[in-house]
Amino acid sequence: MSIMLKDFQFFDGFGSINEINNRLIAGISFTIFVLWIELILYLRLMPVLGIYVYHVVIIFKTVFPFFLFISIVIFAFAHTMFVLLRNPANIKTKDSTYSGVATNSLTNETLDIKLKSDFDPMSSDNPFTSFSKAMMATYFWINGDWVQRD
């Protein structure tokens, strides 16, 4: 909070700040989030709205173990893939060529297709070079978004 208090002025709040401070923006955002949570929790005192807050709390208590389990699974897979693939030069990749024949259905033209796998270990395509990228890639695996298919 001391990050925010040194820039706060009583007459205009944070209006006198000339440069953008990312830590200040993050602090203000977190404070606003906490205030909203506090407001929602204070709504429990009103009987008409309190029942809805009570239901949300019960649902959260029921679903929380599932989210905790999924988080542990994501962490485990991300850590495994990070250790395995952070430096793909250690893994001997095999350059392979796939070939086949395709026929254009409109003109009956035959096309000879050869695909060569082009893997550059120094490129930025590897989503497992840092642990944060590995966590994000593993999270998207749950949805079926495999970046390796592209």
Brief synopsis:
Keywords: Membrane, Transmembrane, Transmembrane helix. The protein is mainly alpha-helical and 150 residues long.
Strand content: 5-15%
> What does the radius of gyration come to?
26 Å
Helix-residue proportion: 40-55%
Q: What pattern of helices and strands is seen along the backbone? A: HHHEEH
The N- to C-terminal Cα distance equals: 45 Å
Keywords: Membrane, Transmembrane, Transmembrane helix
Transmembrane segments: 24-43, 63-85
Give a topology summary.
Layout lengths: L1 H4 L16 H21 L4 H39 L11 E7 L6 E7 L14 H12 L8
Antiparallel strand pairs: 1-2
Helix pairs in contact: 3-4
Notes on the structure:
The chain crosses the membrane at residues 24-43, 63-85. Keywords: Membrane, Transmembrane, Transmembrane helix. The protein contains 4 helices and 2 strands; from the N terminus they run αααββα. The protein has a domain at 1-45. 51% of the residues lie in helices and 9% in strands. The longest helix has 39 residues, at 47-85. A two-stranded antiparallel sheet has the order 1-2. By secondary structure, it is mostly helical. The mean pLDDT is 81.
Which key terms come to mind for this protein?
150 residues, mainly alpha, 2 strands, elongated, transmembrane helix, membrane, transmembrane
